[in-house]
Design a protein that fits this description.
The structure holds 2 protein chains of 2 kinds. Chain A has 9 helices and 21 strands. By secondary structure, chain A is of the alpha/beta class. In chain A, helix 2 packs antiparallel against helix 6. Chain B contains 9 helices and 12 strands. The radius of gyration of chain B is 18 Å and the shape is globular. The chains are: A alpha/beta, B alpha/beta.
């Protein structure tokens, strides 16, 4: 793999360059070490290949064999980003909005007024000065089974969103983090790192939107870490609407303490290749997690969700529903692992993945996995792959509905339960606008 | 008077096997015809072929509807032209709201007819009015199409759709099967309320009981893919008493 080796050389020099230029006053000293360790871990692993079990069906050589320059010029690109932002129809989410352009925080496009007391929303760059203590344990976690992309993100960790919800604080309006990519000619990469901490008994809704100039080529390599302290409630959404030629790789990690309730909705619509690694660790009794996902792809898009729900202690609940609609020659992967550790008695876990193939060439690989080491648990999982139901289509057509519309109605019906589980009206409306004719 | 629909020497097969062996049937505007027959005689095949189900292949014959070649039309075009099939087994469509579905259907038909599409308000008004006709629980119409409906509710939902779409030619495929007597009376009353001088119906049933409530103008007996006997309501009564055996021996 000569090409990939040269890519790694390229990364090496990029890393060196970066580490000399980026030792700003506000950054804590330990961060350089975190970066260095991460880069070593990355070099150790290298980019995954299809020989790696977790990457069997997702070939990232298109990313590994290409040189992506570290994105820059957030400020210069602001005008174009403003136009892009306006075109996304996100106005209803603009109350608490943190906007990043090419990986850099844009104060001009963001709106952070009217935040309730006890809530910190800032860019990571700005957070070092006031929240380094909060950030250190999150960023220095010992990580054994993270992906090479996670390590790469950490090696180049720059800016991102930092959200801290204070003890007992309930934030009604969603906090919206928008990551826009406006490449200036050359293919660029940004390694966004987001850290969200919900303190005890706090409650918040957090939305991440990823988008780029349509048709442009770039690489988003994002990591979001969410810490849900005891009895906190976090409702998290990720809407991936990247350019159809972009690459999007992201890790999302939850750590949930006692009685914390987290739900995550992953809506994956854009990008030529998208990979999401979602990991929920249930570390305190009574915690519950909901993972919902919807991927809708066509053309030659490829989308991959790898989820892990780790029941480390007893009396936790997990619910997972992933649905996929694949058209043309698009391909998809769903790999859902549910681990129930020996001590995790009274676990209640349900997982379901359903796929609708709209064409003969579309392909999906689904692999639900239950690993149960405890003996007093309730676990269920299932996966289906189906096509448009000929009988249902005939039924719709026999009522006067044309074939194309009948297909659309049936497909919308298939996606409806994931849509209906979205609790933030504005997100549901955005999704309806993008995918549903029946804008409910 | 020109016939609304004329079925001439209709042959159809499914999976390589011929099921209809030459059906001839003419229905005038406003007439109600009943087709009775034992299981497997081709009753449902006939209804599906008329509605345009593509899993059946028409090998011979023709169907002239309103002077046009019905068999060359796509199912949705037939519906727009006023053909309606009340399914023997109504299909569940998960996640698709009943009202949304019906509004899409009605507006598609209206558009075809050059009529203005109904907005949500007008549509709701229409729905309220039609729901009463067949005593359908209003809560049901906001649920996904047929999902979680009882057998009787599904059948009522079919007649409800028929009331909304106001077809010219309605085929009722064993609409009585699975209904208790109360539900049967409600469905029959709904159907009777929809009888007009212009609207024709083809009522397919296994039992004569339905025909006490929806009284047909003609009764036909279908055996082994052919109409072997036609008559009035007295034919249905005879079948009820004597079964189909006497007919089968005669044709063989």
């Amino acid at each position: 793999m000569a090409v990939i080796e040269s890519m790694e050389d390229e990364l090496r020099s990029m890393f060196l360059e970066r580490s000399t230029e980026r030792s700003s006053e506000t950054e804590p000293g330990w961060l350089a070490l975190v970066r260095k360790n991460a880069f070593e871990r990355f070099l150790d692993k290298g980019f995954p290949t299809t020989r790696d079990e977790d990457w069997r069906f997702t070939n990232v050589s298109v990313i590994a064999s290409r040189v992506f320059k570290l994105a820059s010029g957030g400020a210069e690109a602001e005008d174009e980003a403003r136009t892009l932002l306006a075109s996304l129809g996100l106005q209803e989410l603009s109350l608490h909005e943190l906007v990043f352009v090419n990986g850099q925080f844009s104060r001009a496009l963001s709106s952070l007024d009217d935040l309730p007391d006890g809530v910190v929303v800032s860019s990571l760059d700005n957070a070092w000065s006031h929240s380094a203590e909060e950030l250190q344990p999150v960023l220095s976690r010992s990580l054994s089974d993270e992906t090479a992309f996670f390590d790469l993100n950490e090696a180049f960790v720059g800016d991102g969103a930092f959200v801290h919800i204070g003890k007992g604080v309930v934030v009604d309006a969603p906090i919206h983090c928008v990551f826009l990519t406006v490449p200036n000619g050359e293919a660029c990469v940004h390694h966004q790192r987001n850290v969200i901490v919900a303190a005890e008994q706090s409650e918040a809704r957090i939305i991440e939107t990823y988008a780029g100039v349509e048709g442009s080529i770039y690489f988003t390599n994002a990591v979001t870490q969410i810490v849900a302290r005891p009895s906190s409630v976090v409702d998290h959404y990720k809407v991936q609407r990247e350019s159809i030629r972009a690459f999007h790789v992201a890790s999302l990690d939850f750590v949930q303490e006692r009685g914390a309730s987290v739900s995550n909705h992953s809506l994956s619509l854009g990008a030529a290749l998208a990979r999401n690694d979602i990991r929920a660790e249930l570390c305190g009794e009574g915690a519950d997690v909901t993972l919902n996902g919807l991927y809708v792809v066509s053309g030659s898009q490829h989308v991959d969700h790898h989820t892990v729900i780790d029941h480390r202690v007893g009396h936790c609940t997990s619910r997972e529903l992933y649905k996929g609609v694949l058209d043309d020659e698009a391909s998809g992967v769903f790999n859902g692992r549910v681990i129930v550790r020996a001590d995790a008695q009274k676990t209640d876990a349900k997982q379901s993945n359903k796929n609708l193939l709209l064409s003969r060439e579309a392909l999906v690989n689904t692999n639900p996995q239950l690993e149960i080491l405890a003996d007093d648990v309730k676990c269920a999982h299932g996966a289906t792959i189906g096509q448009l139901d000929a009988e249902a289509l005939f039924y719709l057509r026999s009522r006067g509905i044309g074939l194309d519309e009948a297909r659309k109605i049936f497909t919308e019906g298939f996606m409806a339960d994931v849509r209906d589980r979205i609790r933030v009206d504005a997100v549901r409306k955005i999704l309806c606008g993008l995918l549903f004719k029946d804008a409910a | 008077m020109t016939a609304l629909i004329e079925i001439r020497n209709l042959h159809a097969k499914a999976k390589g096997l011929e099921i209809l062996h030459g059906i001839d049937l003419t229905i005038q505007p406003g007439e109600v015809h009943a087709i009775m027959g034992p299981n497997g005689s081709g009753k449902s095949t006939l209804s599906q072929v008329l509605a345009g189900r593509d899993s059946f292949e028409v090998t011979e014959g023709e169907v002239i509807y309103k002077g046009k070649d019905l068999l060359s039309m796509a199912p949705e075009k037939r519906a727009c032209e006023g053909v309606f099939l009340a399914f023997q087994y109504p299909v569940e469509i998960p996640g698709v709201n009943n009202t949304y579905f019906l509004k899409a259907a009605l507006n598609s038909v209206r558009k075809y007819r050059g009529e203005e599409e109904l907005d949500a308000m007008d549509f709701l008004k229409l729905v309220r009015e039609k729901v009463k006709l067949i005593e359908l629980d209003e809560e049901l119409i906001n649920r996904p199409v047929n999902e979680g409906f009882s057998g009787g509710e599904k059948k009522r939902n079919e007649i409800f759709q028929m009331a909304v779409l106001e077809p010219t030619f309605a085929i009722l495929d064993e609409t009585d099967s699975g209904l208790d007597i109360d539900a049967l009376q409600i469905v029959a009353a709904g159907v009777n309320a929809l009888r007009t001088k212009e609207r024709s119906m083809l009522v397919i049933t296994h039992y004569q009981r339905l025909l006490n409530h929806i009284v047909p103008d003609f009764v036909h007996v279908l055996v082994d893919g052919r109409i072997v006997r036609s008559g009035g309501t007295e034919l249905a009564l005879k079948l009820e008493e004597e079964g189909y055996g006497w007919l089968e021996t005669k044709v063989s």
